[in-house]
Amino acid sequence: MNAKKLAGEKAIEYVKDGMHLGLGTGSTVYWSLVKLGELIRKGLDIKGVPTSKNTEKLSMELGIPLVSLSSINELDLTIDGADEASTNFELIKGGGGALLREKMVASISKRFIIVIDETKYVTSLGQFPLPVEIVQFGWEVTCNQISKLGCKPKLRMENNAPFITDNKNYIVDCYFEKIQDTKEVNNTLNMIPGVVENGLFVKMADVIVIGGSNGNVNTLLRSKL
Ligand SMILES: O=C[C@H](O)[C@H](O)[C@H](O)COP(=O)(O)O
C-alpha cells in the first residue's frame, strides 16, 4: 500500500466547489494534486496558490487553475505535507526547502490539513533536522548565532553547491538533541538577523491525515479548546 497516496487522496474530501486552496509541496501532497486534477477535469471549480515552483509547474501540467498569493487575502483550505507531525499538532517542514512560502500560505488559510505517512507521526519533534531559511549574505555568522540555541546547523548542499531556495536563499538543517519548547525556538530563531523563516509550524495544523502501510487512513482533528 502506498501510504502517502492514501493520505494525499483522502485530504481531497475536504475540497468543495468554489474554494481557494493553498497547494503544498512534496511527494505526499503530489497525490492530492493528481486527485484534484482528476476532479477538475470532471467539473470541480477551484483555484490554487502554489507553495513552490515545483508545485506551480506540476499544477499547470495537471490543469489546476492558479492565482498568485498577492491577489488573495484568505484561503479556504491548504493541503500540505510535513517531515514530522507531533501528537500535539506541531510540525517540522522544509525538507524540500519550501518552508517560507508554505508558512506564508498556511498563515492565511482558514483550515490547514497535513498529509503524512505513519512514519512521520511522533510524540515530540526533533528527530528530523529543523530546516531554517537564511539569507546568503554572511551565512556563517547567521549559522553561528543559530548554534547558540543548542543545535548543530549544517548548510544544505545539492550537487556539491549550496541548495538555493525558490526565494534565492540558503537552508541550514539544524540538529537538535530535542526541541523542548517549540514556541520559544520558533520565535528565537526568527529574531536572529539573517534568518528568513524556520520550519517549525506551531499551532497551525487543524487536521492531520495519516496514511498507513496496512491501507488504513487515520484523520485527526485538533481540538480548538
Ligand atoms: O519543503 C518541503 C515541504 O515542507 C514538504 O511538505 C515536506 O518536506 C514533506 O514532503 P514529503 O511529503 O515529500 O515527505
Automatic annotation (TrEMBL):
Signal peptide annotation: none
From the UniProt record, list the reaction(s) this protein catalyses: aldehydo-D-ribose 5-phosphate = D-ribulose 5-phosphate
Residues reported in the UniProt entry to bind substrate: T25, G26, S27, T28, D80, G81, A82, D83, K93, G94, G95, G96, K120
Q: Which domain of life is it from?
A: Bacteria
Molecular-function GO term, any one: ribose-5-phosphate isomerase activity
Q: Which InterPro entries does UniProt cross-reference here?
A: NagB/RpiA_transferase-like, Ribose-5P_isomerase, Ribose5P_isomerase_typA_subgr, Ribose5P_isomerase_type_A
Quote the SUPFAM superfamilies the UniProt record gives: D-ribose-5-phosphate isomerase (RpiA), lid domain, NagB/RpiA/CoA transferase-like
Q: What is its EC number?
A: 5.3.1.6
In this entry, which stretches build a coiled coil? Answer: none
What is the main EC category here?
isomerase
Q: In which pathway does it act?
A: Carbohydrate degradation; pentose phosphate pathway; D-ribose 5-phosphate from D-ribulose 5-phosphate (non-oxidative stage): step 1/1
Q: Which residues form the active site?
A: E102 (proton acceptor)
The alphabetical list of record keywords is: Isomerase
Indicate whether Chaperone appears among the record's keywords.
no
Which NCBIfam families does the record match to this protein?
PRK00702.1, rpiA
The protein's role, per its UniProt record: Catalyzes the reversible conversion of ribose-5-phosphate to ribulose 5-phosphate.
Q: How does it assemble?
A: Homodimer.
Q: What is this protein called?
A: Ribose-5-phosphate isomerase A
